[in-house]
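Q: Predict the bound structure with heme C.
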Amino acid sequence: MFIRWRHVIGLVLTVMISVPLITWSGVIGVRASSGHWKVTDWFLHWAMRSSIRTAAFGTRVPELNEDAWAMAAAHFESACATCHGSPISPRPASVDGMLPKPPDLKLLIPTWSDAELFQIVQHGVRFTGMPAWPSNSREDEVWAIVAFLRRYPSLDAQGYKDLAGLTSSDLDVTDRLAASCNTCHAPGRMGANTPVPLLEGQSTAYLRDTLDAYANGSRPSGVMQAVARSMTAKDRSDIADYYSQMPLTAPSVRTQPSKHLRGEQLAKDGDYSKQIPACLSCHDKQDGSPAYPSLSGQNEAYIATQLRLFQAGTRGGGSYNKIMHAAAKNLTSEDVEVLAAYFSARQPD
Ligand code: HEC
Ligand code: HEC
Ligand code: HEC
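A: Predicted complex:
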């Protein structure tokens, strides 16, 4: 028998009518409790692995930063362990009913490459509940998480606790809040290349406006957004007060002095021909506006990252942040490096 056009059209019509009918009848189950058939489960994972492998193709993997481990571990404890569990806490019972269940990552991480882990954490996994990173302009943060995930399978409970800075304590509200901030922000927990800023010595206004900006999403950061949104406006204001009263410790990190001269010159005089303003005409002045953060003694890698984000136009902040987009626009990548080196080693007045 020949297959004629009318057979094909008949088949297509039958499918077009019967699929909505069957769906409407309600016999296709969406219950998580009954699980997937083995073959569906296999198919979905096969589709997921294939999709992530293809998406990761051509992803450029930067050097993974070990100094971001502590920050990423603290973020993992508050944002990932709630589903995946961690070396100090089993997966919570509340997520056991999810389909698929968030897996224990210890065994699975070694089955993915760095580029694939990046794709998973940046974009999440559709149909599973695995969320995307809250911001798509912060690849640097996602790479910090990937660096930590590489370390994760070899951590025991104590190693994990130390890395994430977890301590139990009975402190008052602001001190308890500060203890939670200090899992990342304590100067003693920062390596030379840390992506975390020092908070001491900034003005109350800058700290408060910044926390508000993280909370309302106008300054993108998957890490700090999660922190700021979990606080009330009063908490944000109280903790801003708290850190503004703490003295800034002298810079501990010294970089190559050769970089400083060029950095110092740019910071003091700017570069008229390239339309780069003098940074010190706003920053670190005795009578400067409280909206201008202080840069002296701030961590070098943090300063450099912020300047690059200003250049990319993705660094939000308080109401004056657009000033910095203009100030950073014409900096070369070498300018960024020398300025970060200069300011991180500069003594606060
Ligand atoms: C709301 C729950 C939830 C949260 C929060 C969550 N995940 Fe997931 N995650 C999942 C689920 C569900 C899967 C998919 C499991 C599957 O396909 O079987 C998954 C998959 C993964 C995978 C791939 C593992 C594999 O081979 O299946 C990685 C890696 C991962 N998550 C890392 C993270 C990291 C890092 C964070 C925190 C930034 C995080 N997850 C936050 C639920 C969650
Ligand atoms: C999981 C680690 C982590 C925790 C916990 C954390 N922070 Fe942060 N914080 C970061 C990182 C990383 C950045 C840099 C984000 C960016 O690039 O915008 C940051 C940036 C900030 C900034 C911006 C500073 C500047 O100079 O612009 C403020 C303010 C801040 N955090 C306050 C807090 C407060 C207050 C708490 C506690 C309630 C806290 N953070 C808890 C990691 C953390
Ligand atoms: C006209 C004033 C002005 C000038 C000139 C200026 N800045 Fe800024 N800068 C600001 C303001 C305002 C902010 C705060 C933005 C916000 O709301 O987060 C800022 C923020 C920054 C930050 C982020 C600090 C942090 O803690 O996150 C860095 C880094 C920075 N400036 C570096 C520079 C450098 C380097 C120069 C010189 C090339 C410069 N600035 C010139 C006003 C200025």
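A: The CA atoms of residues 271 and 277 lie 7 Å apart.
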